[in-house]
Design a protein that fits this description.
The structure holds two protein chains of two kinds. Chain A contains ten helices and twelve strands. Chain A is of the alpha/beta class. Chain A has two domains: 1-91 and 219-267, 3-Layer(aba) Sandwich (Rossmann fold); 97-186, Rossmann fold, CATH 3.40.50.300. A six-stranded mixed beta sheet of chain A has the order 8-9-10-5-11-12, with helices on both faces. Chain A is globular. By secondary structure, chain B is mainly alpha-helical. Chain B has a single domain, classed as Orthogonal Bundle (ABC transporter involved in vitamin B12 uptake, BtuC), CATH 1.10.3470. Helices cover 70% and strands 0% of the residues of chain B. Chain B has helices at residues 3-36, 43-59, 65-72, 85-106, 116-138, 155-165, 173-195, 197-207, 209-214, 219-245, 254-265, 270-290, 292-295, 303-314. In chain B, helix 1 crosses helix 11 (254-265) and helix 4 crosses helix 10. The longest helix of chain B has 34 residues, at 3-36. Chain B is globular. The chains are: A alpha/beta, B mainly alpha. At the A-B interface, helix 2, helix 3 and helix 4 of A face helix 7, helix 8 and helix 9 of B.
Chain lengths: 272, 328
């Protein structure tokens, strides 16, 4: 962890801090299938880190390891320099690691507002009893949380659909609501699993703008998986490239773009 | 007013009261269905188990007395003390929470992300296990439950209506108490589910396990909470039914009476359980009153199911159920 104190400044003048999260020699096996093989990389405080790779490269598995949905077979995850034991996903969420899903996991029966409010559950303090009895300012606390949520709603420009049940929304808006719910938790790290999959050009541009704004305004560290190479190269500060469960590249977008292994993986050279 | 009409009114009132009793059972189903999408077949048995435990604790029965006697050759049956009703109810509530924890640990934990039918089968297994367990623990004889609830016909109401209308209404005191309890219970549960942190978490878990985990909700905690509440509702239902007709093993069959109530009210709605219960209760009684004599009576056995069937055809999600919206 010798680079904890180090940092750098990006071309557009954002300050990137030291290592916030580090994956050390992560291996993930499902029975005989190796989804991730001995991968190490770090995520620095305040940066936008992308994980790319062809289909089946193990990107989503990696994100699931980070968010605690999978427990790595070998290797460990370090958060703020501390080794993280095997944790349940809800415990990881309570650490301040929020995520979205590739296939959108929202609460379809609830309104947009209620969905986003669930994002703040980890931040609510009032206990069961006081909630039940309305003691201890549970209601006042609710108002404060509501205020924060309204800010996020404004930020992501979804005021007009606040009361709509999520099940009725079109795909692009659902993705945005999911981002809002993750943001509501005020996370240290935001994990986005293909935030732009299935979107049209206009929706993609919007989403790009939101991701950059989130990073800029809240200083949230973002790790994202994306297929669209153009998007990844525009958005991210550093990129990890995976192929067949292995890491084949790691660096700035320019470095990665010129890496022969990466070019081979994307253009299809036979693997031996 | 003609006597016939007054009598019909009395029947309706009695129907409403009977409906409340159905609703009390249906409530437990709705709670678990809302939070986990499981139709909990064991809800009726939970009510039976709660009532058995309550009587056992109150009477100072030795649990597993039969088993202990058979193994050790002793002849223990009772501790020889009686416990006040309130304390016994609290203790039983504690037992129901313990039961919820055990159910989560032994059954639910191992069935995360399984299809609803698998969980449904698990609850059937639980139902039979609990029924047998209750038998072994407290014995199979019919017990009388008396926690001091008023019984018999309400005389005030009878004399008042007699003076006012010239026709005294026969309403059971116990039914009145059950109605008041049900109103309080539903109000509390609705407030809890709509406005509390845990209530929101509960609805979240019902909707999507993965998403719930990702916002930091512990499935374990929510399930224990839900089954505890369902156990508590079962206890209330057990007290009411047990006071009315004694604690006997056929109590577990009231679960089947709750089914049409749920189809009417919707599986996901707490107020729906109440309204569904009332409609079934009143419908049943009125149908028996008007049509019963024409077709040979005993219509109460099947009327609820036919009514539910008619509802299923026209409004499959029930009166208050969430409309199923699917984007194609």
């Amino acid at each position: 962890m010798n680079d904890m104190s180090e940092g750098y400044v990006t071309a557009d003048g954002r300050k990137i801090g030291g290592t916030l999260m580090e994956m050390k020699n992560i291996t993930l096996k499902f029975g005989g299938v190796t989804a991730i093989q001995d991968i190490s990389f770090d995520i620095r405080d305040g940066e936008i880190r992308a994980i790319i790779g062809p289909n089946g490269a193990g990107k989503s598995s990696m994100l699931n390891v980070i968010s605690g949905f999978y427990i790595p077979t070998e290797g460990s995850v370090y958060f703020k320099g501390v080794k993280r034991g095997p944790m349940k996903p809800y415990q990881v969420a309570q650490l301040g690691i929020a995520r979205t899903f590739q296939n959108i996991a929202l609460f379809d029966g609830m309104s947009v507002l209620d969905n986003i409010m669930t994002g703040r559950l980890t931040l609510m303090k009032s206990g069961l009893l006081s909630q039940a009895m309305w003691w201890g300012g549970a209601s006042k606390e609710e108002d404060e949380h509501r205020e924060k949520v309204e800010k996020i709603i404004d930020f992501l420009e979804i005021q007009s659909i606040r009361k709509t049940p999520v099940g009725r929304l079109p795909y692009g808006l659902k993705k945005r609501v999911e981002l809002a719910r993750a943001l509501a938790a005020e996370p240290k790290i935001l994990l986005l699993d293909e935030p732009m999959a299935g979107m049209n050009v206009e929706e993609k541009e919007d989403m790009c703008r939101f991701i950059l704004d989130v990073n800029d305004e809240f200083g949230t560290t973002i790790a994202l998986i994306e297929h669209d190479m153009g998007v990844v190269m525009d958005l991210s500060d550093r990129v990890v490239v995976m192929d067949y469960g292995k890491k084949i590249g790691d660096g700035t977008p320019d470095e990665v773009r010129n890496n022969q292994d990466v070019i081979d993986a994307y253009l299809g050279v036979s693997h031996d | 007013m003609p006597d016939q009409l007054l009598f019909a009114l009395e029947v309706t009132l009695n129907g409403l009261m009977a409906g409340v009793m159905y609703a009390l059972v249906a409530l437990g189903f709705v709670l678990i269905y809302k939070a986990s999408g499981i139709f909990n077949y064991a809800q009726g048995v939970l009510a039976l188990f709660a009532a058995l435990t309550l009587v056992g604790i109150q009477q100072g029965q030795v649990p597993f007395a039969h088993l202990i006697n058979a193994v050790t050759g002793m002849h223990v049956t009772e501790f020889g003390w009686k416990i006040p009703a309130i304390l016994a109810i609290l203790l039983t509530a504690g037992v129901m929470v313990g039961l919820a924890i055990i159910i989560e640990k032994l059954v639910l934990k191992h069935l995360v992300n399984q299809a609803p039918i698998i969980l449904f089968m698990a609850t059937i297994g639980m139902a039979y296990f609990l029924e047998g367990f209750g038998d072994v623990m407290w014995g199979a004889d019919i017990k009388t439950l008396d926690v001091g609830l008023p019984q018999g016909i309400n005389e005030t109401l009878e004399s008042v209506t007699d003076k006012a209308l010239g026709y005294g209404f026969f309403i059971d005191n116990l039914d009145i108490v059950a109605t008041l309890v049900a109103i309080a219970l539903v109000t509390a549960l609705t407030l809890f589910s709509q406005y509390s942190k845990q209530g929101r978490a509960l609805r979240a878990v019902a909707d999507d396990h993965q998403a719930a985990l990702s916002v930091g909700i512990s499935l374990r905690f929510i399930w224990i909470l839900v089954w505890s509440i369902a156990g508590f509702v079962a206890l209330v239902a057990g007290i009411m039914w047990g006071s009315k007709s004694g604690v006997q093993f056929s109590l577990s069959l009231i679960a089947l009476k709750a089914l049409p109530v749920l189809m009417l009210g919707g599986f996901t709605s707490i107020p729906g359980a109440i309204v569904g219960g009332l409609i079934i209760g009143v419908g049943e009684k009125l149908f028996e009153f008007f049509a019963g004599p024409l077709i040979g009576g005993a219509t109460e056995n099947w009327f609820a199911y036919v009514l539910a069937l008619v509802f299923l055809v026209f409004r499959p999600q029930g009166l208050f159920g969430e409309k199923i919206i699917e984007r194609v």
